[in-house]
Automatic annotation (TrEMBL):
Lineage: Eukaryota, Metazoa, Spiralia, Lophotrochozoa, Platyhelminthes
Region of interest called Disordered, as start-end residue ranges on this chain: 194-213
InterPro entries with a match to the protein in the record: UBA, UBA-like_sf, VPS13, VPS13_VAB
Name of the protein this chain belongs to: UBA domain-containing protein
Gene3D superfamilies found in the cross-reference section: DNA helicase RuvA subunit, C-terminal domain
Domain of life of the organism encoding this protein: Eukaryota
Domain spans labelled UBA: 216-256
SUPFAM superfamilies: UBA-like (SSF46934)
Single GO BP term: mitochondrion organization
Pfam families referenced in this protein's UniProt entry, alphabetically: VPS13_VAB (PF25036)
PANTHER family found in the cross-reference section: INTERMEMBRANE LIPID TRANSFER PROTEIN VPS13D, VACUOLAR PROTEIN SORTING-ASSOCIATED PROTEIN VPS13
């Protein structure tokens, strides 16, 4: 059965099935019910229920329930639930009441148009069994389905036997991917629209349908049960439980235990399903019977759709109970092609996988949300086509792309001939029992001498599947390897079993090789047999060829299998090399084949040319001068033992333009072109003793005879005096020397800029590994020692490496001069005027003089140098190993004319001083202060702080100690504004202000070391407010790690108050890296501010930092909010709040608690009603000496117009004139508010409230006798407004 879960169709079916017949007449039905009730007894009801046993069995084989995301398309994406259901129910049985079995239950997602090709498993096939059983029958009771146990009479009405629910299932494996979640969400999103869709698919107006017949029929029965005195809600619940049977409903209502259930059932919408189930079952047992030999298991796998990686996780239920389980966390590792156990801790691979999946999911959502379709059609046909395209786009975005099949292997043929191949797939054993049995068969067969029969039995047990046909791959071609189709759906648990893929290869004209496993990454080989038609003399001793399988994995987890021969040629020269292959039988040039190798290329020799060809090489130097092939051919057979290396020096003659062979000294530079062929036998098995033909397994490297490596921070020039060869090697590069005379020793002269040429080094061809010292002198006769390291093999290339002992890298922006402490001669070698004026960008290389502990002497080559030991921390640790720094003499901090005069050799106002010494061989970070002494003794010294980091070099620079000098402070501008920086006490000087554009960073030094070291910043551009200028911020410290905000206030150019403009905020972060503090300025677009002041009162509030100036105060209006940061971050975070005419208080922003309350007095003015809301409001005013009341224009803040309400008792109060009283502090306790005050009163002896009339108002001292006349109730109609 195949059922589509189209809910609008299911709703129509449900309506048809639940619609009953026309209801009978209500009075007749009521009379019949009453008659039946009168003749019904409890025993008869029980007998009718128990004497008729019934059993229901239902079998649904291979049924499917299909949930689709779109019901209007045949190629919709769907989730299919498939299985076989067997249901049996016998409610009268004393043992098993109900049994439901779900066999081979599985769920998978697919596309309905191509279900088999796109099926992806979500739930692997599993078995579920749910049984509902009663406890064992009472003593003497029988079993069976008839319920023939011992009857207890009326006690059976109160005896309840709650059943036991038992759930059994096999190993449950669930796999979810992100696209599965998208598909399920799309399906769930379509359900409400299907449920609300009316039958027929037409939109009809909602009409209230009449009550159904079954509803009327139920109401008749409810009325009958209500006549017996039961509650209507209980009656409806009992009828629902009894299926409309009036007699059974009456029986249920008489049971006291079920009355509680009926009362709870009336609120079924708010009840918990598990709680309801717990009321009808005494126990719920969930058991798992795993059949894989590893115990019970419930696994949930989360799949990354982009990297095809499975990550196994566990799920925790929301209910409390007892559970016995084993938690295991696995992941599918494609390196091992199987499920591998993994510890439950977080690993870097997990975090990388999570971050990659999160970014891709976010990108997918971002792209899907950006898909928009604009419909601009004017005709009906265009509108329909646009709607159809929109639906396709929305479907593609909502359901996700279909996964393309993964191709695990790719074969590349570099053997030089055609290849035939086939793939064998071998499945692993499912359990340890079968594996042990196979091992036992092999062992027994080997002991009996029948290994061939045993191997055949093992192959049959492991289910060997081979491709029936061989496939052909041309030379220098590549192809994807197609594997057998996997039985079952993808992502099944069975598809993750370990499979062994073996590749069998046969070269054209050769015998097939033994299959090789291609699941592992590495380099493997197979020996191939001789072709059938080959000469017997050449191949009588064994195999004639060797084939290498190089297996690597690329970024998409695909394995690249490269087939090549076991003989390779690698070009390590700087120019192209031509390799010529000539047969021994046909040595003419016409029978040769040539290959060209670019620098760094590796060429596998075609396998058919290895045995009977000679190899000759020559370089392609230039178009004008060509070089002949080397006189000696490359003999790869001279290296016999594994990992043995044999070198040979080859000479090539130059050819002229007419292709005539010139004399050895007639080339472009005289001597022949030399190169070295180095043959290395790889770690292949040794050849068989007595074998006439050696198997290849060698790597041939074409190398230069002399390689000069420059590890200095500047270019190195060299000269060969005897050959008139000159060259230049850039920093960190190497150069090859080919024009040599192999009959004499090599004389090499090295030269550096600003140094005199030293004596040449004599390097013999038989030199071995040694280190020489090359001494140079600058133009000031300062000595510099360089290390020259020689590495060579017998008849092999010579590698000459030149390096320095120390590097000094200056990143401070200041001119630095270094010297050795004990040396009174001044700065070290190589420091001239460009270093004094900071015009040298390259690092400074230097060396220290030999002091105690250094080993010196003449070199073995007799070249005037000596062998020395250069290691980290060496040198004996004497005082001479210390160094000091100072600023350059041409550095003038004041700038202007003084700097210009100093540059011309004039008078200098500042003299640099040497700093405290330091040890250059001690790794670590230190801080030093550089002082500049002024000529005027009344001025303080200028101090610059720098950081020093001493560390050894990395990699090939490990023999060099690197000293990096950095500024103590680095300012990084990551905001969108141009910022200006200055020290707190130098903000008024333009010369001491530096400016940094966005995305810039620069070194910073304090202008005055004797002043407060506080940094100020302001906006240097006018983009935020063109008509305003930004003031300097408060000073803040940058010598400690912190994170805070800086408030920048803007004021008009006319000198307006700083608080009149909207403030600007900057985020400041101070971090430390080694010996440098990095100060980072950024915007706060997406960051919250540290403080926000919310004024929820009815008066304006003035706020400012307590210790800051009064000009930095600001006002927040009633009901408004204001962001705020400290004006002075270096001061205490205390804020003072005040109210006009009220109190003020100070609050500590580090203490989160209620502070002191602000108090203020509420004053009123008395306004004429007819003038309220007009431009001229008239209020009572009393500013004359005779205390006469007048109507005057309202003026804000005028005390003669203000009144204070003073309560006298609980019943009444009086108005007191504010202008006739002295001002008082609202925080002070009030002494006597009614003493010597004037109140608003009538100007008569006594008022007559009973008689209408008008009395004038006046100010009078408060009198107890005139309490009645001072009350506001006797005044004329007035309007009170709060000031």
């Amino acid at each position: 059965m195949r059922l589509f879960a189209v809910f609008d169709w299911l709703i129509c079916t449900q309506r048809f099935l639940t619609t009953g017949p026309e209801p009978p007449c209500l009075p007749a039905r009521r009379a019949a019910a009453q008659m039946a009730t009168q003749h019904l007894s409890f025993d008869q009801v029980r007998s009718t229920d128990s004497d008729k046993p019934s059993e229901l069995k239902l079998n649904l084989s291979d049924c499917e329930i299909i949930f689709v995301d779109r019901t209007d398309s045949r190629d919709a994406n769907a989730v299919i639930l498939r299985g076989t259901a067997i249901f049996a129910c016998n409610p009268t049985a004393s043992g098993r009441i109900a049994n439901c079995s779900l066999n081979s239950l599985e769920a998978f997602s697919c596309c309905l148009a191509c279900e088999d090709e796109t099926a992806l498993s979500i739930i692997d096939p599993t078995d579920f069994t749910v049984e509902v059983t009663r406890p064992d029958a009472r003593r003497g009771g029988g079993g069976g389905g008839g319920g023939s146990g011992l009857s207890l009479g009326l006690l059976d009405a109160k005896e309840t036997q709650q059943p036991v629910i038992e759930v059994l299932y096999t190993t449950l494996s669930i796999r979810f991917s992100y696209r599965d979640f998208q598909l399920i969400a799309s399906i769930l999103g379509s359900l409400p629209s299907q449920a609300m869709r009316p039958p027929g698919g037409q939109q009809q107006p909602q009409q209230r349908s009449p009550p159904s017949a079954s509803r009327q029929w139920s109401e008749c029965l409810v009325y009958d049960l209500m006549q017996l005195g039961f509650d209507p809600a209980d009656c409806r619940y009992a009828l629902g439980e009894a299926g409309g049977d009036l007699q059974l409903a009456a029986l249920l209502l008489t049971d006291p235990n079920r009355q509680a259930d009926a009362a709870a059932g009336s609120n079924g919408a708010d009840s918990d399903p598990l709680a309801e189930l717990g009321r009808y079952a005494s126990e719920i047992q969930v058991k798992c019977s795993g059949g894989n030999g590893c115990g019970s298991a419930v696994s949930c796998v989360l799949i990354d759709d982009y990297q095809d990686c499975d990550f196994r996780w566990s799920l925790e239920g929301p209910r409390e109970g007892r559970c016995s389980a084993t938690l295991m966390v696995n992941y599918f590792n494609r390196d091992l092609s199987a499920n591998s156990l993994l510890n439950a801790n977080l690993t870097k691979h997990m975090l990388d996988l999570y971050e990659s999946a999160q970014k891709r999911i976010y990108q997918t959502r971002k792209e899907s949300s950006a898909v928009t379709i604009a419909t601009t059609a004017t005709t009906v046909a265009e509108q329909r086509s646009t709607a159809l395209s929109a639906r396709r786009v929305s479907t593609a975005v909502g359901s996700g792309r279909r996964r393309s099949p993964f191709v695990p292997f790719r074969l590349v043929n570099r053997t030089g001939c055609d290849v035939h191949y086939k793939v064998q797939t071998r499945y692993s054993f499912r359990d340890d029992t079968a594996a042990a049995a196979a091992i036992a068969v092999v062992s027994a067969a080997a002991s009996a001498g029948s290994s061939q029969v045993a191997g055949q039995e093992v192959r049959e047990q492991t289910q060997l599947h081979c491709d029936p046909d061989w496939r052909r791959l041309a030379a220098d071609a590549e192809t994807a390897i197609e594997l057998d189709a996997v039985d079952g759906k993808r992502r099944h648990e069975s598809t993750h079993d370990y499979r062994v893929h073996r590749l069998a290869v046969q070269l054209e004209g050769w015998e097939p090789c033994e299959p090789i496993c291609i699941d592992r990454v590495g380099t493997f080989f197979r020996d191939t047999a001789a072709p059938p038609g080959a000469a017997a003399a050449a191949f009588s001793a064994g195999p004639a060829g060797r084939l290498v399988f190089n297996i690597v994995r690329n970024s998409t987890a695909q394995k690249i299998i490269t087939l090549r021969s076991a003989l390779t040629f690698t070009n390590r020269l700087h120019h192209r090399v031509e390799l010529q292959l000539r047969s021994h039988e046909h040595f003419e040039p016409s029978g040769a084949r040539s290959f060209h190798l670019e620098p760094g290329d590796c060429l596998p020799v075609p396998i058919r040319y290895i045995a009977d060809c000679a190899f000759r090489v020559r370089p392609a130097v230039s178009e004008r001068w060509s070089v002949d092939f080397a006189r000696e051919s490359v003999d790869w057979r001279r290296a016999v033992k594994p990992m043995e290396r044999r070198d040979a020096l080859c000479a090539c003659r130059y050819r002229g333009a007419d292709d005539d062979i010139l004399d050895s000294n007639a080339g472009p530079t005289g001597p022949d072109y030399h190169l070295v062929t180095s043959v290395l036998r790889e770690n292949f098995p040794a050849d068989i003793v007595g074998q006439s033909v050696a198997l290849p397994g060698h790597s041939v490297f074409i190398e230069p005879p002399v390689c000069l490596v420059n590890l200095l921070p500047q270019d190195l020039s060299y000269h060969l005096p005897m050959l008139s060869v000159k060259g230049r090697v850039a920093s960190g590069q190497e150069d090859h020397l080919h024009l040599l005379d192999s009959k004499r020793d090599l004389l090499l002269q090295l030269h550096l800029e600003n140094f005199r040429c030293p004596e040449p080094l004599r390097i013999p061809w038989q030199a071995r590994r040694q280190t020489l010292c090359l001494t140079m002198h600058d133009w000031n006769d300062k000595q510099l020692d360089l290390m020259v390291k020689l590495e060579s093999r017998a008849q092999g290339p010579i590698r000459i490496t030149v390096s320095a002992c120390y590097w000094l890298i200056n990143r401070t922006g200041l001119p630095l001069i270094i010297k050795q402490t004990y040396d009174d001669g001044g700065p070290l070698a190589g420091q001239g005027d460009e270093h004094e004026a900071a015009r040298c960008v390259a690092p400074l290389l230097f060396s220290l003089s030999a002091v105690g502990g250094e080993v010196g002497g003449a070199g073995a080559s007799g070249n005037g140098g000596w062998t020395r030991r250069c290691s980290w921390g060496g040198g004996g640790g004497g005082s001479g190993r210390y160094c000091s720094l100072r600023l350059g003499r041409h550095w003038q901090p004041a700038g202007g004319a003084a700097a210009a005069a100093a540059a011309k050799g004039g008078y200098s106002r500042w003299t640099p001083l040497w700093c405290e010494h330091f040890h250059p061989d001690s790794p670590g970070c230190i801080v030093r202060q550089l002082h500049m002494k002024p000529a005027d003794q009344s001025l303080p010294n200028l101090v610059y702080s720098i950081g020093l980091e001493m560390r050894p070099g990395r990699g090939r620079y490990r023999h060099t100690n690197i000293i990096t000098c950095t500024s103590r402070y680095q300012l990084h501008n990551r905001s969108s504004h141009v910022l200006a920086y200055a020290q707190r006490h130098c903000t008024g000087s333009v010369e001491h202000t530096i400016t940094g554009p966005p995305t810039s960073y620069q070194a910073f030094h304090w202008t005055r070391d004797d002043k407060d070291k506080l940094l100020c910043v302001r906006l240097a551009d006018q983009r935020h407010q063109p008509d305003a200028a930004c003031a300097w911020s408060g000073g803040f410290r940058i010598d400690e790690v912190a994170s805070f905000h800086v408030l920048l206030r803007s004021a008009a150019a006319g000198g307006a108050h700083l608080a009149t403009r909207a403030p600007h905020f900057l985020r400041v972060e101070v971090t430390v890296h080694r010996s440098t503090f990095h100060v980072i300025f950024s915007d706060i677009d997406n960051l919250p501010l540290p403080y926000r002041i919310d004024n929820r009162s009815r008066v304006p509030v003035t706020y400012r930092q307590t210790q800051a100036g009064a000009e930095l105060r600001s006002v927040v209006r009633p009901g408004a909010s204001a962001p705020y940061a400290l004006d002075e971050p270096a001061l205490k975070p205390h804020i003072t709040l005040s109210i006009p005419g009220g109190s003020c208080a100070t609050y500590d922003m580090n203490c989160v608690s209620a502070g002191e309350q602000l108090r203020y007095e509420t004053l009123y003015d008395v306004t004429l009603v007819s003038t309220v809301g007009t431009l001229r409001e008239l209020v009572l005013d009393c500013d004359s000496p005779d205390l006469r009341l007048l109507l005057g224009k309202k003026v804000d803040g005028k005390r003669s117009q203000l009144w204070r309400w003073q309560p006298v008792s609980d019943n009444y109060g009086i108005f007191i004139h504010e202008g006739t009283m002295p001002p008082r502090d609202p925080r002070q306790p009030k002494s006597e508010p009614l003493a010597n005050c004037y109140a608003l009163d009538v100007d008569c002896i006594a008022s007559r409230p009973s008689k209408p009339g008008h009395d004038p108002l006046r100010l009078a001292k408060r009198d107890v006798k005139r309490a009645w006349t001072s009350r506001p109730g006797i005044y004329v109609s007035i309007y009170l407004s709060i000031y």
